[in-house]
Predict the 3D structure of the following.
Amino acid sequence: MKRAAIEVTQKPRIIMKRRRLARRPQRLAAIEKSGQPVTLFLAPDAGLEPFYASHVVLAKTLDEAGHAAIILSCNGSMPMCTVKFATKLGPTSRSNTDNSTCVACRAVRQRTSEDYELLEVSLENLLAADDYALIDEAAKRFEVSPWTAEYDGIAFGTVCLAEVLRDRRKHAVEELDSGDIALLAGLLQSSLAVYLALQKLSARFNLHQIAYFGEYAYWQAPQVFAARKGIGLLALSHGYHRDIDRRLLSIRPRHYMVHAFEQIDGWKKHADDPIGPETVAEIAAGSLYRLTNQGGASTYSPTWSGDSQKVFEELGLSHKRRTLIAYPSSHDEFVCIAGQLEALGISYPGRPQPFSDQETWLRELILWVSKRSDLQLVVRMHPRMGIGNRHATLSSDYRKFKDAFATLPPNVVVVWPESRVSSYSIAEFADAALISWSSMGLELARFGVPIVASFQRVGLMPICNFIAFEEQADKYFSAIEAALDQPATVGQISEAFRWTHYLHWGSLIDVSDVIPTPDFASVPPYRRPQQRALMLEAMVNRADITQLNMAKLDLSASARETEKKAILSAVERFATVFDADALARARGQLGDFAPPSVTGDAPSRLVGRLLNLLRNDLPNFFGDVAPSEAGRTLESAARLS
């Protein structure tokens, strides 16, 4: 009886829903006729559900608010797409739509389209025989050198080559093999298909905004198109928190890197803006999470060992020398970004640099250290350069550096990508950390490690209080000298936290009421987001979410004091995680710590800096111990380590 009653209650709803779904063609026609502003979601990748969920939640939010939203979908004719990248399928022919990846993708699209009742138009319904003929003609004309392909004044070949080089971890077109060229050709055909479909949609509808997820090759030409037509952009991604947090949706008003460079250029305006204690705590938790989360989407380092002294000894280092740690990055990522920005008409990096490239930097650094009996250098090659769970082959960087650094001075050690030594364990005994453009710079700055950058405006960090940089090589080495004796301060760590917030949190919208977990892998049932108003500001009014979020910050004196307390609490938490025993001894024991070479009791350089900071800034840290006497104790321990 109860089941029958439920069926009777639900039947009218089902009938009404079917009627609404059946009216979707009429709704599209009415939008086209009226000229109502449309937000177009470039979402042919339904099979990658976390990406697709971001599209459809935003589209449904618009639709519910009475605004027009259209999904550009795909039934399998794109030779290459984000789903095929994720599943490692590789490029397929236009007619091969029955492969398992495309079948599964269509199933998600159809189910979600009905559940969310969204309006969509497929590539296949938009493109006609003459469009496919144009794509085929371009593929044939540029068959020998697809990286040179252009259409409508846009360097399609350049962005497709950039994508291939990033995926294959290579540096130049001369390194491509037949499989790479096949991938490039597939990307070229997909990019042209998306662009031609966009042109047709623009002719039919009043496009107000174009949304896309991730900076992939096929989304670069639409950005050029949008700029030409005065159409807004919604560059979507998930929050860079802990690893990747799908509960946090980032919306930027243009290419990720272009917007981030604007943040770098405007950092002085916000460098003194305090952030709330909850945000400080979240950033601190995310920093610690990365120590042990190897294998995540953004975490390459092996798991932190918790025994830096053992690592120190295994690397054959000496306690009689100061230790520099260098963190090179994957050059293919630079090459990819440079290719994308070139197609967008943007110079990258567009700033003077002390070194021409990473190899030159490392050669000159190694030569400089080799002449110093008081220094030792550890070069931690990026794990992404080697074979791992993401890559079955060696990168161009690996082969290049293996040849370049086959012979080393006795006070230089290279930790190669395949090493199980954690990048974070090495950082614990760093007197200073040197980066090319690695995100390790920002991560370690939050732990109070002195940072010197070798390149500017390549990675996503400003030149400011927590990171040093010089445009001339001689001054660069002077900056390293200065960093060797740099203590950790509340001001520098606070600025590193603030930059983390501005860069990674400023553009975020919290959608945890819709997406329940950081790694949620499906399209959720729709519910009206609590942050609906903020979403609509970005989608309807073209507001910059970062500006809106920054404008909400409390800039009062009391907010600064609250932030300082939160930073000190984070520092104390860091010290506890890295070396709880050292923290306890620092609070309750007088007298010098023994050298680590004898008993291992002295704190690491990282922990020593944090303890010194707590001594100076945390009230009652030492209880009844006189601050000056306690200070001498910690300074001695730090020197010994």
User: Anything to note?
Assistant: The chain has a mean pLDDT of 92.
